[in-house]
Amino acid sequence: MLALLHTSSVHVPVFDALRDRDHPGLPLRHVVSEELLAGARAGGPESVAGDIDRVLASAVAEGAAAVLCTCSTIGGVAEARAEALGVPVLRVDRPMAAAAVAAAPGGGRTTTRVVVIAALAGTVGPTVALVEEEAARSGRPVTVTATVVEGAWDRFESGDHAGYLSAIAAAVDAVDGADVIVLAQASMAAAAQRTTTATPVLSSPAPGLRAAAAAVSRRQSGQPVVRSAVAGSAVATSTTASAGGGVKASAFP
After folding, report:
1. pLDDT of residue 117
2. Which residues fall within 8 angstroms of residue 6, CB to CB, at 6 or more apart?
3. What are phi and psi of 201, to 5 degrees?
4. How far apart are CA 164 and CA 79, in angstroms?
5. What is the 3-state secondary structure (H, E, C) of 126-169?
6. Number of H helices, E strands in the chain
7. Confidence at residue 107, expressed as pLDDT on a 0 to 100 scale
């Protein structure tokens, strides 16, 4: 079973739909803890490390072969717990970051220009650091800049998801001088389909779930789990399905 740690219930149907489309038969257990994001926004991701530990330990005790954290703000803290837990803990945005680093620079340049679009200021630091980490790992030069879409998160929290996605898409289309655009949060994925830019736009749900499904498969087969380079609280479970998030990028699925 793959456990998914979310900080919003909006992700549940998205990942169920992606599972049904790309990984049929993969058992999922959704753990929703909005308090983790609230705490991380107030005191930084490390301030909720203890709560993350407890949530992850509970998921493993209940049979999780791997855990996928779908929140970019706390993903780094969750990922760091893998060794202590004894199961893979993946952050959903790592495969996306690796794909962004792999994007070819344009205009005869040697450095790839990555633009991060975020709805929360607290997500910018972890996402930029992740892209830079993947760049250092692969030895590819990148420059990373970030834009926070003002007012977008207020729309999300008020339930205006259409307005939220439209605001994200407008910010993406306003980007100039990028080789690849990264949507920092999983909740932003569907905005990629609303954009008109010719620049590749990457989102995290599909590649993140793919990496997590592969980790579960390796554990089932007894293979050692290798960290992929492409690669609290109220608890809720769900097996519902609806339209999944997307990635607008022909070269980076």
Report:
1. 98
2. 12, 30, 31, 32, 33, 70, 71
3. -120, 120
4. 28
5. HHHHHHHHHHHHHCCCEEEEEEECCCHHHHHHCCCHHHHHHHHH
6. 10, 8
7. 86
Distance separating alpha carbons of residues 138 and 142, to the nearest angstrom: 11
Q: CB of 180 within 8 A of CB of 202? A: yes
Check residue 48 and report its DSSP letter: G
CA nearest to 143, candidates 97, 102, 112: 112
Structure tokens at 179: 């080789």
- Which of 187, 155, 211 shows the shortest CA–CA distance to 14? 187
Q: 94-102 and 205-220 helices cross at what angle (nearest 10)?
A: 110
Which mean pLDDT values do the consecutive 10-residue runs of the chain (253 residues) have?
96 97 97 96 95 97 97 96 95 98 92 97 95 97 97 96 98 97 97 97 98 93 52 28 33 30
Residue type, 29: R
**Given this model, what pLDDT does residue 223 score?**
64
Q: Token pair 């569907």 is at which residue?
A: 190
Do residues 7 and 37 make contact, with C-beta atoms less than 8 angstroms apart? Answer: yes
DSSP 177-240: S-SEEEE-SGGGGGGGGG---SS-EE-SHHHHHHHHHHHHHHHHTTPPP---S-----------
Measured distance between the N- and C-terminal CA atoms of the chain, rounded to whole angstroms: 24
**φ and ψ of 73, to 5 deg:** -65, -40
pLDDT of residue 224: 56
Q: Bridge partners of 144?
A: 114
